[in-house]
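Complex record, three chains
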Amino acid sequence: MTAAPPLLSVEDLFVSFHTRDGVARVINGVSLQVDAGESLAILGESGSGKSVTAQAIMGILDVPPARIDGGRILYQGRDLLAIDERERRAVRGAGIAMVFQDALSALNPVFPVGWQIAESLRVHEGLSKPEAHERAVRLMERVRIPAARARARDYPHQFSGGMRQRVMIAMALALNPRVLIADEPTTALDVTVQAQIMDLLAELQHDTGMALILITHDLGVVASVADRIAVMYAGRIVEHGDVHAIYERPAHPYTRALIESIPRYGRSRGGPLRAIEGLPPSLTRIPPGCPFHPRCPVRQDICSAEVPPDIELGERRVSACHFAREVLNGRL
Amino acid sequence: MSRFILRRLLQSVLTFFGATLIVYALMFSIATDPLQALAGERPLNESQRAQLTAQYHLDEPFLVQYGYYMRGLLTGDMGRTITGRPITDVLAESWPRTIQLTLITMVIVVVVGVTGGVIAGLRRGGVFDQTSLALTLVVIGTPVFVLGTVFQTVFAVELGWFRPSYAPELGLATYILPAIVLGLLSLATAMRLTRASVAENLRADYVRTAAAKGLGRGRIVGVHVLRNSLIPVMTFLGTELGMLMSGAMVTEGIFNIPGIGGRLFQGIRLEDGPLVVTIVSLMILIYLATNLLVDLLYAVLDPRIRHE
Amino acid sequence: MSSTGAGLPVADDMLVAEAPRSLSRDAWDELKRRPIFWLAAALVVLMVLMAAFPGLFSAVDARTAPCSLADSLRPPGPGHPFGFDKQGCDIYSRVIYGARSSVLVGVFSTLITGIVALVIGMLAGYFGGWVDAVLARGIDIVLGIPPLLGAIVVAKALSGQDLGIWPVVLALGLLGWPTAARVIRSSVIAARHQEYVSAARVLGAGHLRIMLRHILPNAMAPLVVVLTILLGQFIAYEATLSFLGVGPRNVISWGVDIAEAQRWIREASYPLLFPAGFLTATVLAFIMLGDVVRDAFDPRLK
């Protein structure tokens, strides 16, 4: 829609892992984009490749055993895969920052949190220790950690789960990144704390105008924060588009099955829960054709033979299903 | 925290008395003729028997005897050796040598062992790692006295690089070969421990976070990983230090070093009961004190322990 | 969001998850692959055979063979591959026959250690509370005694009598159990909190039954590993004690031979190197075996 190129754009990314048990094709032609001020949710089950996508964007994959087999990652017009490590490192943390799932293990247990937050500032911006520490305290206040100044000297294990996650967010925000990737930021937290953290993320995004990529398997979390959503399965994006449009009328059998599997109050009382049959495929042996076809309730012959193309359904809505239109219109 | 220290202190006191009681009991009570066990293989005549009986209160109940012994030990009156020499003199003379040997050994262990372990941990699976794993395994499996005698044979007798025995005129240099022998076992264990710790920490989540912050490899490893990895290593080194200070009996014996261990070795050879028992009691004391200090060290190094 | 299901005909090989693999089967597969395992196992078997049937390896019976001073320190030659020691005894047969005292001491002291450690570790871990507190203090106390010195003291204390290998066996067995007991205690504590233990209790199983049937199997793997390594260390200790002159009397022992050889080291090195080599190989074999088995059972290294 906009003439200017998107802030971050992943084009046709292919990533594989070479393990003892074979080659796992973890990301198979993923394309996505996000603009300033936008929030994109990447939704998928475990093993769908969503975390690996995030780590590939950040450039923190362990390069053996992982291997980037193709594609481009364009940030502000530059292909991150084509620049050298030193330049990439300059982008990491400062341009694109990441928040991880389990703050207890993601934070270093032997350094105070204030020190860890200040570290980015000392290393990237060359601030002195007192200056960096001051900024760190400020950041902790920004993410609403009470008694921030005193708590900056505490260690990660002295915080509750929710507070720890705020510390992670403060750490990620330290350098005013343009893109924030949050990898399952609330999965390890209680439901009420989840809501607080999601609200905080939404508020910070609004204030800073940064782009937010939210990775999750939780449909409820997605609905509250995301503008657009990309659904991943077996390393591919099977559908993406506006979140409300997709929820109301999904255009891919997988998305539809996901939405229908959420138990809803009042509906199908006394009937069985609707789950998706089968299990996600092992990424070392992805089924031919459409990767979802063994579990698809409406599969046809062509599905096991040909990989479905990306079918444009208008308004930035895309679905990778041979029968996308039929699914969208409820005829299949 | 202070409750923790107090509890450990009490435990240590209990352990000290328990352990020394057992040693004392073994020494004096299991043998059918405790007097004979004290004197070894030399036969005793009547007056010697009477004197030993009085000296060691052997005609009194066991616990009383132990009480006398402990009182003596703790007030610094450690009695005399079988030849009549005050044991305190023997200790004052021998300990400095053991300390010197210990220092040189620790330097070798830290410089070679810890550094080697870090390198091996960083390049896990590489050539250095595999060779060091194999070599350390051989070292750990070889009994100390074998290592000592073989090294002595090869490097001192055959190759002549070192003197085969203690030569005080060489100053600290005389401890180098014994320190290598003594240090090899600690070194091997330190290297393996460091390697495992580094390798494990390299896979930790906080490493990924540090990378996501845009930190360079040097900083990630040098600051984040190392600070975590070295915690178990430091505590291990602390315990090793304690063990070394109580004298490495076999090594000092092989190289004829008149340190605490050497004296003990001699004491066994000459069957000097009082000396042996006293030195062993002191070793137990050192062991317990070192363990306590190492536990405290752990709390200092790892903030998670501090807040339990 | 997903479940296994029946119903729709689906391509089976796409859907079926891999069959669950048990830890011991995994471990055995892993072990089979590693050459170190076979090497160590072979060495262990060899040494045990040597201890049990020395006649298979040496035509000469070192216990009765005469030693002639005329042969003193004769170098290796035909018929006598390891040469002669200072007393004129054939080194090769002494080395073969020396295996017995080392292996026997190792086996018996490990047995004693294993039993004591199992009982104490099990009781401490299972009952917890003051039982654990008391037993843990006991462990601390025995651990406070420097093992080598403790063994020497025991051996010396019994030195008046000619009891063969038993003073050493007892000394090692009674001093070595704390470490093994701690290992068992940890695995018992871990197993105790499993749900199947609570289930058994609810079904009315008595303590002894629970301990034997449910908890013991979990403690076995780490116990075996610890005992294997301990065996190697005990053999080393026995040799050290012999070296120091407090080992079993009147038996042929590697340690004694090494001690003797050390005195004449400037004249000949092979009387030292051959027994030393066999000793090291034996100790290493057990330690490597224990090491590699432990690695195979450690899920973190997968």
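Note: Chain B has a mean pLDDT of 82.
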